[in-house]
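Local shape tokens:
==================
===
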Amino acid sequence: MREAGRRVGPVILGPSGGEFILERGSAPRWSAPRSTLLVPGTLVLLPPSTVCHPETVGARGWLVPPAHEETGALLCAEVTPGGALLEPYLAAIQAAEDAEALGGRGGQ
């Protein structure tokens, strides 16, 4: 996403994989395989902003940590817009499926 010039906000790596924190209301029609869009009001447990992968708290750590001031007082509101994530996400899913298919044929 960064190589394509798209901004990438905070991303958590947890037991279910990567979890993007999206801009509120930016993914109203999100529909993509192997993903779940949480509805407003869903409780999400976030690790402290200083806990970065491979370090974890409750099996979760920041892959892309939220930007914060050295004082730790304010977090940056810069998050990924849902529309900017869909195309790269679908491309990554396709690449993963292609790799799985090759692996299932003995790498041939």
